[in-house]
Fold this protein.
Amino acid sequence: MKGAGGSSGGIGHFFIGLIMMCGGFYMLLNAISVTSNFGLSSRIYSVNALGGFGVTGGMVMIPFIFGVISSVRFSMRTMTSFDLIVIIILAFGGLGLFLRSLKSIDT
C-alpha cells in the first residue's frame, strides 16, 4: 500500500504535519500587522477650472505604485516568548513531518 505522495511514508505523519503546519503559519500570519500612510480616498490635488474636480488618491495610484509599496510597514504584534515558541514548533515541526512523510521508508 502506498502512502502519502505515492511513497511508503506514513499517511498519519502527512496529515498531522499538514495540520500543524497550517496552524503554525496561520498563527504567524495572524501576528503580523500591515499598515500604510497613503490615503486612497482623500483629495490630493484639486482642479477648479472644471467645476471643482478633485483628484483622489485612487486616480494617481498607478503612477505612484512604487511609492505606495515603499510606504507599507509590516510589524509583529507584542507576544510572549511562549507564543513565539509554539508558533515556531507548530510551523516548522509540521513542515518537517510533512516533508518526512513524502520520503519513502526502506524496510
Remarks:
- Helices lie at 11-30, 65-70, 81-102.
- The chain has a mean pLDDT of 76.
- Residues 34-76 form one domain.
- Residues 25 and 91 are 5 Å apart (CA to CA).
